[in-house]
Amino acid sequence: xxxxxxxxxxxxxxxxxxxxxxxxxxxxxxxxxxxxxxxxxxxxxxxxxxxxxxxxxxxxxxxxxxxxxxxxxxxxxxxxxxxxxxxxxxxxxxxxxxxxxxxxxxxxxxxxxxxxxxxxxxxxxxxxxxxxxxxxxxxxxxxxxxxxxxxxxxxxxxxxxxxxxxxxxxxxxxxxxxxxxxxxxxxxxxxxxxxxxxxxxxxxxxxxxxxxxxxxxxxxxxxxxxxxxxxxxxxxxxxxxxxxxxxxxxxxxxxxxxxxxxxxxxxxxxxxxxxxxxxxxxxxxxxxxxxxxxx
Length: 295
Known about the structure:
The chain is of the alpha+beta class and 295 residues long. The chain has two domains: 10-217 and 280-292, no CATH class; 221-274. The protein is 50% helix and 15% strand. It has nine helices and seven strands. The protein has a seven-stranded antiparallel sheet. Residues 1-18 form the signal peptide. Keywords: Signal.
């Protein structure tokens, strides 16, 4: 009996400590990051760094392809490329969400796919950030409602600014389905080229799709007036700050711009559902969610 229990314990222990494909991927990624960091510390030539980064990302892309399998979502290709744009912590594109990006063109719809396990790990790393602007909650539901999640997860050169959340009907079988309207920007103020972003969690699968709004989002006079007024006030403060070289005046100007931006987007979120274009935008989000769910 003692021998039986010893064998069973050894077997159970082996299962408990067996590395999963996600563990293998994370280990390979971290090893590559450390190797590239060492090259950076040694002042290796740019060509050497770029070659090492490209080789490592190609290996990680293969691992993710095996982990995720082919994509089966209407209007998207079956194979993707790695979402990580760099493995060097001094480059833009470092630290994005581990997954594959699927797109037929650079300016068309795109979809980032990952696993729930990899998303959980990524959120845990974001929660541990010492920079408050980069911190994210560990809960998936909570994180998906934040602009900062999309900024850090699926883009590297612009920030996502949400306009509103769609009243999406969760597709059958999905655990989480969230659809948002917003835009990518490097500045405050109106974003006229809006994107429909839909995130679907189904079992261990996580997909984040982004597509240009099928119908142009209209300018709403009341909201435009809010921004115009705020911008004028901020411009005046900035001009005064330039003359006085007053840091507090600069801060006041920036605060006025940020408040005006927030007030403008609040206005759009409240008024856009009453515009004739809204049903088409909601329909686009719902269709995208349904396709992601396999319908």
